[in-house]
C-alpha cells in the first residue's frame, strides 16, 4: 500500500496544479477558441490530467 501512495501523491498534486488554474480561467472568462463555459468546465473537471491541458491548448482564448 505504501508503494502505491508514493506514486499517487505526485499525481494528485499534478492534477490539482492543472485543474485549479484551468477552472479559475474557465469561470472568469467568457470567450474561448472552441466551445463554451459548460463544456470546458466538464472537460477540466472530469477528464483527469488531460482535460486541463486540452483546455490550455485548444480552449483558452489568447489574451
TrEMBL record:
Subcellular location per the Swiss-Prot or TrEMBL entry: Cell membrane
InterPro entries: CLS_N
Topology of the protein relative to the lipid bilayer: Multi-pass membrane protein
Record domain Cardiolipin synthase N-terminal: where: 17-59
Chief site of localization: membrane
Residues that span the membrane, as ranges: 6-27, 39-58
CC annotations in GO: plasma membrane
Classification via Pfam families: PLDc_N
Keywords, in A-Z order: Cell membrane, Membrane, Transmembrane, Transmembrane helix
The protein's name: Phospholipase_D-nuclease N-terminal
Originating species: [Clostridium] polysaccharolyticum
